[in-house]
Every structure is written in C-alpha cells, then in structure tokens.
Amino acid sequence: MDTVEERLRDALPRLNRLGYIVRFAVSDDDTWIVDGRATTAELLPDDDRETACTIKITKDNLFRLLDGKLDPMVGYSLGKIKVLGSKGVAMKLVSTLS
Fold first, then answer.
1. How many CA atoms lie within 13 A of 69 on its CB side?
2. Please, which pLDDT band fits residue 74 given cuts at 50, 70 and 90?
3. Is 35 helix (H, G, I), strand (E, B) or coil?
4. Which pLDDT belongs to residue 1?
5. pTM passes above 0.85
6. What range(s) does the SCP2 domain occupy (predicted)?
7. Number of domains in the chain
8. Residue 80: how many CB atoms within 10 A of its CB?
9. What is d(CA 86, CA 15) in angstroms, rounded to the nearest whole number?
10. Which DSSP symbol is given to 13?
11. Other Cβ atoms closer than 10 A to 77
C-alpha cells in the first residue's frame, strides 16, 4: 500500500515551479511540506516554516485527487478539501495535481 510520502513524492514533477511553499495536513501525524519555489519541487518533513497555504485532506481523498478521481472544486465545495491561507495558491496547487 502506498504511503502519503510516496504519493506526494511521485507528484512532485507536476509541482515544479509552483512558486510557493504549501503544507499538506493529511492526518494528525502525517503532514508534509512541498517547496515549489525552485525549478524542482521538494518534499520535506513538516516544520514550523511559513507556508502560503495548508491543505487539509484525508489520505483517501488525497489519493483520489492525485489519481484524478476527485475534482478539486467539488472536493472543496463538499468540504473534502479544506484550505487555510491563500485560496488562490491552493486552487493553483490542486489544479496541477488533478
């Protein structure tokens, strides 16, 4: 079974040049930082750095989003994707993932 880290790492090429740092809060103990400011995006363990936004999502919904089975706008409007911080950055992020 895939882990959140593996799935996010596989998605990194789609996040190159995103231009922002984003936190994925997938569960209480599974939180990751994607630094998309450089040409090549990086996946980092969570820390206290400031991010443009935080995406709160369950593991199942994250996997569905990454697989293109969850539309980001529908997920957000149904509360399956929650955003803290910049909604514009979040929409740019999830549109590149789906």
1. 6
2. very high
3. strand
4. 61
5. yes
6. 4-97
7. 1
8. 19
9. 17
10. G
11. 10
Please check whether residue 5 is in contact with residue 24, taking contact to mean a CB–CB distance below 8 angstroms. Answer: no
**CA 92, CA 83: separation in Å to the nearest integer?**
12
Domain region containing 61: 4-97
Report DSSP state, residue 14.
Answer: G
Please, which residues have CB within 8 angstroms of residue 23's CB and are 6 or more apart in sequence? 31, 32, 33, 34, 46, 51, 53, 54, 55
CATH code (residue 23): 3.30.1050.10
Distance CA 51, CA 92 (A): 14
Cα(86)–Cα(28) distance, rounded to whole angstroms? 21
Helix segments in the chain, DSSP class H: 4-11, 59-66, 72-77, 87-97
